[in-house]
Amino acid sequence: MADRIHVGTRKGLFELVRREGAWEVVDAQFLGDPVSAVLAADDAVYAALDLGHFGAKLWRRDRAGTWSELAAPMFPTKPEDGEDDPHPWSLGKIWVFEPGGVAGRLWAGTMPGGLFRSDDGGESWSLNETLWRMPERRKWNGVAGGEQPGIGSVLVDPRNPRDIRIGVSTAGVWATTDEGASWKLINHGMYAEYMPPELREDPISQDVHRLSRCAAHPEVVWCQHHNGVFRSEDGGANWREVSAIRPAKFGFAVAAHPTDPKTAWFVPAIKDERRIPVDGKVVVARTRDGGRSFEVLTKGLPQRHAYDLVWRHALDVDASGERLAFGSTSGGLWISEDGGDSWTMPEARLPPIAAVRFALG
Amino acid sequence: MPTISFTSALKRFLPAPIVTVEAPTVGDAFNAVFASRSTLRGYVLDDQGALRRHVIVYVNGEPVNDRVGLTDPVGPRDEIHVFQALSGG
Lengths: 361, 89
Hints:
The complex is a heterodimer of chains A (about 350) and B (about 90).
Chain A: E1 4-9, E2 12-19, E3 22-29, E4 35-41, E5 44-51, E6 55-61, E7 67-70, E8 93-99, E9 106-111, E10 115-118, E11 126-127, H1 129-132, E12 150-156, E13 164-169, E14 172-176, E15 184-185, E16 208-214, E17 217-225, E18 228-232, E19 239-241, E20 254-256, E21 264-266, E22 284-287, E23 295-297, E24 315-317, E25 324-327, E26 333-336, E27 353-358
Antiparallel strand pairs in A: 1-2, 1-27, 2-3, 4-5, 5-6, 6-7, 8-9, 9-10, 10-11, 12-13, 13-14, 14-15, 16-17, 17-18, 18-19, 20-21, 21-22, 22-23, 24-25, 25-26
Chain B: E1 3-6, E2 19-20, H1 26-34, H2 38-44, E3 55-59, E4 62-63, E5 79-84
Parallel strand pairs in B: 1-5
Antiparallel strand pairs in B: 1-2, 3-4, 3-5
Helix pairs in contact in B: 1-2
């Protein structure tokens, strides 16, 4: 089981370690600066900063524990005929890091919708030009009405690192089976009831808040969508709505159980224009039967006047499926060691949380 | 030769000392600095080489006109200051 958690917040990166059964904050880095993504893998820790004035930055902690700044992913020169491109050709922020399944390889999903790859442990990055230069990319919509779409999920098939699915807010689910040389929009069955009728089921109009796949059964993928919860049993191509989710179908985060394809966790909220927990109660919704039914888990979570929202990268499960952690916009951080049955809060009042991640391996 | 100084807010992230360069424009002055300080470039300019939206550059106390092409001329005694644009409370 993972004994280390990294938490990216509005005001720094925090590291928690489990010691004698209790979790404690052992390190704080980048105090005062927004951390938008974090990954601990292969003895390194990667942190993305989202500096208000000075742009998106990339830092890495090496095996010896030393942090250093690396060159951040960068967009190529905008072509002269690109004036009508609705998206900026400049890195907005790094939203998610994922290991690539090959030594040294990392993927970074970003705003304004560029997917970047590194093959040298983050030292250098290249934009996936095929995806970025597709004419359809101009139809991608921005996050929260902004000008920048975001790649918030990168699913690398554990059996085949050339097979990748990405989830985009807002542009559906895209797949490559040739390591990014070609891409297809693959999602069918999702719908967005807030869209005009002719776009309601349009695959590219689907706001995929977050995807999570069962590592042992990668064909099973769960989605927390702007409009509800969906589940796929064919790697993200065909989706069925999971209408049993409660107490609400809106939310951002989802975590799939690493080995049980029928178990997943969500943190629902009142939809959209309010974005707060139902009745001021922070709860986790867990299904163990493929989405037919849900348990609403509350033990150890605040049940009175709690207005915490949990962003898409702020819920994680470790490789055992027993340890979970999630963090909120109010700086709440809760950890479970029994699959979500009960939760404890470490001794810390953290800044608003964007990303919670167990250390891998 | 014009001098360039950078906001002290950058000190938390990387060294950005005052430098004197030989350059006819603001852009050329930046290029001369960033040639030996490549990481600093990304703090001041975006991926297309324009000034970041929340960075402001003054020449002798006047904000530069060309934030995209950085073509504002600079003379030998000019002082270029790079600041973050103030916002928030």
